[in-house]
Amino acid sequence: MNYNFLLVICLSSIKYSEEVYPFSVCTAVGHIGVSNPKSYGTQPWTADVSGYDTDTAYLINDPDTAFPCCGVIEEWDAYVEETGTIKFDIWRTTDGINFKLVGSNELSPVTEPGEVVYNVPSGAQYTVLPGDYIGWYTPLKEMMAYTPNITGEATNVQFFKLRPSSFSVGLSLDWSMAESQSGYTYLIRARYGVNQPPTFVNLDAQITVYPPIAIGTVIYTINATDPDISDTTISQLTYRMISGNGFISFNPTTRQVSVAADLTPYVGFQCITFEVEDICTNKDTASLCIFIYNEPPTVKCNPITATVIETTTGNIALTTVAVSDPTDDVTCSLSSTSPKNSPFYLRQDVFDYMIYVNPNPGFRQATRNTYSVYVTCTDRKNSTIAKCDVKILPSAPPKLTNLPGYVTLSTANVNTDPVYAVSVTDPDSTSFNYSMTCKPTLCPFTLYNMGNIQLNQDLIDHTVSGYDLFITVTDGYNSLTNTLTVTISGINVPPKFINLPLESNLYVLENTARGSSVYKVSATDDDGEALTYIMTSFPPTGLIYFSIDSFSGLISTSTLNEINFEAMTDKIFTFRVSVTDGKMTGSQNLVIQIFDVNEGLTFSHNIYRIIVNESLAGTQLPNPGFFVYDNDIVDTRTFRHDCSSYNGYLTMNPDNGMLSFAVDYDLDSPGEPTLITCIVTATDSGGLTATATLSITLNGNLPPKFTNLPMTPALNVPENTAIGSSVYKVSAIDNDGDLLEYSMTSYPGTGRTYFSIDSTSGMIRTSTLNPINYEIMRDKDFLFTVSVTDGRLSEYQNITIRIANVNEEPYFSQNIYRIVANESLARTQLPDPGFVIYDVDIGDTITFLYDCGPNTRYFVMNSVNARLTFAVEYDLDVPGQPTLITCTITGIDSGGLTATSTLLISMRDVNDNTPTFQHYLYTFYANSDSAVGTVLGSISATDADSGQNGQIVYSTDQTGLTQTFFDVSSTGQVILQRNLNGIAVGTILPFTAHATDVGFPSLTGSTSVRITVLEPTTTRTTTTARTTTRSAANKTPISIHGIFFISLVFLILTR
Predict the structure, then answer these.
(1) Cα–Cα distance, 492 to 459 (Å, whole number)
(2) What average pLDDT does this structure show over 305-321?
(3) What GO MF terms are annotated (predicted)?
């Protein structure tokens, strides 16, 4: 079939739609076209217009038929004269020449002529813009009615013939070929309404993405719908991204959302706002929220359960904390432990983190054998916690590799000589504590904490021939005890007393004769050597009264000093009796106690005389002056008289010996005697007696008179005055010319022990037997009553003699004293020499002086106790320091008298300097295929001590490594001890090197050593060791050789 389309348009009046009408949006219902098609339906109609009646499209080109706003076609209203199919069309021009069919609603079939109203369904309502025009198309025959020109209605029509196959929405035509007509009004009207806004169909939305994502990757496609059909099929919708963070790009044509940048910085929710707009500028906005997922760090413990021996001292790596994250850098920290505050710490190594044990963790497997360490790793967005377990293994017990052991010493060994070095091995520990017990106890050995046993005294005088030393070593966890048997040869058996000590005190009677044997000490010596006896006394005055024969051991009383209980200050003496064979000495105590003996009485005169006048009974006669000597202190005596046939004349007072007349006595009575002679007896409490004669005369004889008595003040006699010396001559006269006789009594009675009077001359002299010793005399003042008699009458006067103390020289107990002193710092006190200085002057004070010749400057002395102290630091490691110093020690008493002795000081070198390494860090390099025995470098330590104290032994501590890879020679060379195959290139193998001196006790210094594993060498013939050291003076991190080697490797790799 051949169809005509009549396209009706008025070219002369068409302009761009946006120029005809300002763009506006329809907000209410409106109409264009004939105002009321039905009202004009009664007008005649002609179907043929200029010969086109089929396959013709019409366009009403009158401006009144242009849409004024953007809206949709809701209804078509027309009047038709024929039945069939009719299409109501919308045409749009952009340049006034070309028109585009943007909408077409078909009404089919139309069954009868008349008014037809087509309510356009919502899904078929096309959008119109301001300036769009209406038209129609009938494929078979013309159906639209028209009338001649109606005032106020559109009359301009243009029509165009088309092929049916080419007519569809979207068709564009060049209107310069169109035909037009005017003067007719077609009965067609369109009702327009409000254009509906578009709506997003997949927004608001949330999506999740997982970085890393390549830039340009599409992560979402947005879509919208519009109830107005042409908004999506003809005009299309306009999409925009109106907010974003720069990491997202949007293609409004494809509606695709793509990655525009690295998403890592934008982890989390990021919301982007999009806008869709239809042709009428209706809009919808919605959001796309993108959750950018952050992959949390992956954290693994390798191994999950680490093991460590309880003896570890710390700073060792336990387990690797492997961390990975696809996008971020990760930091880790030790967040907690179970139990709390467990001894672990986390440290980042080259690639991963490592869990280490704190220094000195104090593990006790028996108390707790497992720990948990929690490590938190974060990429600053997410965190992951890993639990790493640590199992504590029990330590192996130490082994005493050279015990039980046996060692023989001799009496020639001296203090500080080494005895034995205990050797200990322990696979888990290098630190041990030692202890020792001895059998017999009080052994002469000291065990130091490095296992070295040393003498603590000279053996020259030792008497025990052997000891069992029970050595215990502990590593802090396990203990082991074993025995060292020490035999001492050349023992000199000391002499032994046979009869000392006594079970009780030895009593010696006072008045025992001078030089009398008291006790013979006996001793034996298994070596058959000659014995010598000596003894000391406490108090020292015992040696005034007793002495010992050095050959026989016989103890005797003094040949000079009388043993007088009453005169002696001390009555009990403890003698330390010693016997020596010239090498060894044995000592025992002997206590001698002075026994008080009741001594006889003695009258001061053999004859006493009194003259008395006759008198009545009861009259007391003159005092005869009886004086009775009794050395027994506090003894009592009684008196009695015997006057033969004259007893009846007299009575006597028994307490004082005074006589009284018993009867009246009258010489005028015949036969009364003028001279009565009586025997007077004095009796002490022990029954001992003394007698004297009393002559009683009744006549007028005159008594003698003293010329130089009494005497004041007291007469002073110095102690140590020679025996038998004259002290004082008493003088008297007698007017009757009688011969005079002198005598004297003493109070206290001990004065007679030290002084006597010549009865003829009256000269008082010191005793010829007993020396005057102030310190041992109990009494120092004596009141002597001196009497002079002419044979019948007597005169009595007093004289006081006072013993004056004389300052006497002090003396040391020994001529030579010896001490051994360690070198030390200033103000260190030297050992006590045990100075003993005797001074018989009671209460005297001694001041000490010292003179060590040119070495005096090394010391200061306490003048009170004679203790020496270093004045300066004394160090035998300094050249020229003497090892033996001789000093003269002087003791000065308060009177200026002196005593001297010699002090020999043996200076002993002390191990007081710790070995010091030249550098605190040594770095060496080893190829991974280096041969065992390769010297990797050298370390060096020095010790400021001299002698064996300055000799150094090197060792290593490689407990932080899995195996023992290295050794250090005696010269400090670091030697590869184990093959490095399997050790990754770049691995750093750290260990600690020790330098220990061989002194007692030994001292140890340490340094750090790091071995860096390098690529294997291309040839196995030569290995070059490279060294880096770090010290206070040299902090170069790598040696010149190292820099050259690294540079060479870099050049080879980059070629």
Answers:
(1) 10
(2) 87
(3) calcium ion binding
